[in-house]
Design brief:
This protein has 124 residues and is an alpha/beta fold. It contains five helices and four strands, in the order E-H-H-E-H-E-H-E-H. A four-stranded parallel sheet has the order 1-2-3-4. The protein starts with a strand and ends with a helix.
Length: 124
């Protein structure tokens, strides 16, 4: 049995043909998936995916490159998301990425700290 522990099934090229993607994975003995959130729009798709497929789980997080678009995300928001979704089993995508400078360092740090707070409280 194989588990894909980091995929982005919400990306358009996969999302539009998800049944076929899952079928091909199953043929190749990939049985479980963890699809990783990067934005609030991403999470909307992830909720649909994890409700439809019993073997797919998700995360909630804001990618560092996207953090400037979501300054309102805080640990309380993340905790509320987790409470409403039992198949959300991790916090991410998260971190700091200063290489490309898509988002200001300070907002990246703020969002990352909120992710860490939520992760600590949830013990995930």
């Amino acid at each position: 049995m194989i588990a894909d522990s980091h995929c982005h099934l919400d990306y358009l090229s996969l999302y539009d043909q998800l049944d076929k993607v899952i079928e091909r994975a199953n043929i190749n003995k990939v049985k479980y998936f963890l699809t990783i959130c990067t934005t609030l729009d991403s999470f909307d798709k992830i909720k649909v995916i994890i409700e439809k497929y019993k073997n797919i789980y998700g995360t909630f997080g804001i990618h560092p490159h996207e953090s400037k678009k979501f300054p309102e995300i805080n640990s309380k928001f993340i905790l509320d998301v987790k409470k409403k979704n039992s198949k959300i089993i991790g916090i991410g995508e998260t971190g700091l990425d200063f290489y490309y400078n898509h988002s200001d360092k300070e907002i990246q740090k703020k969002i990352f700290i909120e992710h860490v707070k939520a992760s600590s409280e949830l013990n995930i």
